[in-house]
């Protein structure tokens, strides 16, 4: 005979419809469950292996038929459990009570109801709840892993950036782990390095400015003086002092002056009297270390004087205007030249009438010299050396990158811990789900067996219990 195939949630109705289970089976099951609980409350001196069975109960649902069946079997195995009276009843009271409850389960086939309720509990509540929790935890795990990947990418990019920045100051990043405790230490190191680097760069600019002025004095000033003489402009220019600042720069631009023309006094407050940029005497808060060329106090140099540089800039701009005009005349061959050379001697006229290439070369030199003393980079360096707050701002820009790396390391550690705990939680949920599958499989088999015994025909259950 082919087995009867039933949806698992219809087995109780199917058996009940055939009168094998009373209509109040659920009420009877509740009564028997209370008796099982009362059994353990009444008998407190049970063997340890029997007491352990009580721990199988839980707050959601306890299938008591299986527990009480095991109780009976274990009590039978004891010495007291072997004793019976003349009526065949057990004389060992705990065994007698447990066996009585077990018989009540069998008398109305309530044990089938008990297993059905267990199966329903696992398939309707436990399995979906665990799956939902596992799905949520899996999403959290994916999110944490993605965040960790992003964090690691930011950390690598930040590490490359800060390493490059520190390398430009000859600071080894390996000496400063990405720990927030190293921020103040690195800040002082950066302030020292920025001050030293800008001092060295500024001195190099001044040295190169001096060399450019030497070239101008050699190649352009004679032409300019000839132009002045040729156009009888001696009332405007004294031949002995014409472009005097350019000459001074060429000869003494890097000389240390005793009195800096009352300029840079505020800056000198930040620099030591030994001519170095060790700012520690009058301003103890600005204490930096310098070496090599940075031992020179640039504000005591002739070129370090702002008024002197301003005069130099004015003369360079005037020379630039002169050269621009000559280049324009030579390129355009204008018939109406701005300056007439016919009233001067051939020697002077020849001196002024230099080839275009020489004027273009002088223009390049002038542009470079002007940029060296008044360009954005030059002004930025001077501002940094004059003002500690500017140095700190520059240091803080690099420190922001370092701090972000520190935060990324902290975040990465936190995410690693979260990932580990989430993986453990997911593993636990998967184990719980596997246990539910095991219980469902066993309970389904028991239900099919009991139903077959009750109905006298083979029963097969199907439904979502096969897909848990």
Automatic annotation (TrEMBL):
Name the UniProt record assigns to this protein: CDK5RAP3-like protein
Family as reported in the entry's similarity comment: Belongs to the CDK5RAP3 family.
Keyword Hydrolase annotated: no
Organism: Babesia bovis
Taxonomic superkingdom: Eukaryota
Residue ranges the record marks as coiled coil: 412-453
One GO CC term, this protein: endomembrane system
Start and end residues of each stretch annotated as Disordered: 260-290
Keywords: Coiled coil
Biological processes per GO annotation: regulation of mitotic cell cycle
């Amino acid at each position: 005979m082919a087995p009867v195939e039933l949806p698992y949630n219809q087995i109780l109705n199917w058996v009940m419809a055939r009168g094998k289970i009373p209509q109040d089976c659920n009420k009877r099951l509740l009564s028997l469950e209370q008796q099982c609980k009362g059994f353990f409350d009444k008998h407190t001196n049970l063997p340890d292996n029997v007491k352990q069975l009580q721990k199988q109960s839980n707050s959601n649902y306890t299938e008591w038929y299986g527990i009480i069946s095991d109780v009976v079997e274990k009590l039978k195995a004891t010495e007291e459990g072997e004793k019976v009276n003349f009526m065949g009843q057990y004389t060992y009271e705990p065994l007698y009570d447990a066996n009585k409850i077990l018989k009540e389960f069998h008398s109305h086939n309530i044990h089938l109801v008990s297993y059905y309720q267990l199966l329903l509990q696992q398939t309707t509540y436990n399995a979906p709840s665990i799956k939902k929790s596992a799905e949520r935890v899996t999403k959290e795990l994916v999110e944490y892993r993605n965040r960790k990947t992003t964090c690691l990418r930011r950390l690598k990019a930040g590490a490359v950036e800060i390493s490059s920045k520190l390398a430009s100051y000859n600071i080894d990043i390996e000496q400063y782990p990405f720990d927030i405790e190293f921020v103040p230490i690195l800040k002082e190191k950066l302030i020292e390095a920025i001050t030293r680097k800008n001092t060295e760069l500024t001195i190099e600019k001044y040295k190169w400015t001096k060399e450019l002025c030497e070239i101008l004095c050699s190649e352009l000033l004679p032409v300019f003086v000839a132009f002045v003489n040729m156009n009888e402009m001696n009332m405007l220019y004294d031949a002995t002092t014409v472009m005097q600042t350019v000459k001074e720069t060429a000869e003494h631009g890097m000389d240390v002056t005793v009195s800096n023309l009352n300029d840079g006094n505020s800056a000198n407050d930040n620099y030591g009297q030994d001519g170095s940029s060790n700012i520690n005497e009058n301003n103890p808060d600005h204490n930096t270390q310098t070496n090599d060329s940075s031992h020179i106090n640039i504000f005591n140099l002739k070129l370090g004087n702002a008024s002197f540089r301003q005069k130099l800039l004015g003369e360079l701009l005037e020379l630039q205007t002169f050269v621009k005009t000559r280049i324009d005349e030579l390129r355009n061959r204008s018939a109406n030249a701005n300056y007439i050379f016919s009233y001067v001697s051939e020697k002077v006229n020849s001196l002024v009438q230099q080839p275009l290439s020489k004027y273009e070369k002088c223009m390049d030199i002038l542009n470079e010299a002007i940029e060296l003393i008044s360009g954005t980079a030059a002004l930025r360096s001077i501002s940094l050396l004059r003002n500690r707050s500017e140095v700190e701002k520059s240091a803080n820009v690099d420190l922001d990158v370092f701090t972000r790396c520190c935060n990324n390391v902290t975040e990465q550690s936190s995410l690693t811990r979260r990932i580990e705990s989430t993986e453990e939680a997911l593993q636990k949920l998967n184990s719980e789900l596997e246990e539910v599958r095991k219980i469902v499989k066993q309970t389904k088999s028991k239900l099919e067996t009991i139903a077959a015994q009750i109905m006298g025909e083979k029963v097969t259950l199907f439904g979502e219990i096969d897909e848990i």
